[in-house]
Amino acid sequence: MYGTPHIVSDVMTTTVAAVGRRAPFKELVEMMQDWQVSAVPVIEGEGLVVGVVSEADMLPKEELRDDPAEEYRQLRPPADMAKGEAITAGDLMTSPAVTVRANATLAEAARTMARARVKRLPVVDETGMLEGVVSRADLLKVFLRDDQEIEEEVRREIVARLFPPPDSAVELRVEDGVVTVVGRIRDTSLVPVAARLVRAVEGVVDVRFDLAPGRRAAEA
Prior knowledge:
Blueprint: H1 8-11, H2 25-35, E1 39-44, E2 48-54, H3 55-63, H4 70-75, H5 78-85, H6 89-92, E3 100-101, H7 106-116, E4 120-124, E5 130-135, H8 136-139, H9 147-162, E6 169-175, E7 178-185, H10 191-199, E8 206-213, H11 215-219
Parallel strand pairs: 3-4, 7-8
Antiparallel strand pairs: 1-2, 4-5, 6-7
Helix pairs in contact: 3-5
């Protein structure tokens, strides 16, 4: 995209709840409740991230609490069975932690979350030291961008470059993040290019086109 994309450091939370390896199970539950988070980084030393404990890591404790039948237990992965017996963060955590750097784009962070199937990522520096946490909700903040601001960027950086007058006559509307481009253009083969570029603009939810060949294209 043409504009400078937001990066993780723009939206991440820098005041972070974190625990050491020896943190007990109940403390983890209390911390998640108090901080209203679904996972906490596990650190050692001055803040080196060595793992993450999530609600999913802790749920086997309740899942297996009433000693289910052996047939059910055999269906569960051995790691989950072990976590059902764990009582400290070091035994519960998923390690190595899936992390992201502060200078990663929001799109890169979103892809990392999707691949790892996690809701939150510790943000670390080049040495693995904890700098913050970014959540799914943080990444969605980009869609709070004002429609007028989106329209101005699309008009300036994309429409003006791909469909300049007098060969093209294009009108642009943005409503609730949906960009609509209508009018006549000289080269309709540029529409897929325009669609890709518009979707790359932060805050854009979708893009729609109602375009017809311009005069010169029709006469060719």
